[in-house]
Prior knowledge:
Number of helices: 1
Helix content: under 10%
Radius of gyration: 12 Å
Shape: globular
Mean pLDDT: 85
Number of strands: 5
Oligomer: single chain
Largest sheet: 5 strands, mixed
Amino acid sequence: MKDYAAIAFAQDPEKWKSATRYQGMGRPDQDGRFKMTLPPGDYFIVAVDRVEPSRTSDPEFLDQMKMKATAVTIREGDARTIDLKINSGS
């Protein structure tokens, strides 16, 4: 499946209050991969079949998504590859 969105967001709920550099959303390239640039930190990342961009900074939505997400730590200079299963964005 190549039509999905990947959402990354800080594990710290205090950083969910508005769109910040600790959140990212990406769409896949031709190979079904996506790229995001995030500062070092602890994140959740989840792939969803659909999502409205405005929901990516909604604390209720992010709280629901963290249960389906993969936890990842990004360190300075990291380039990571993470395999994700696509979840429902609703």
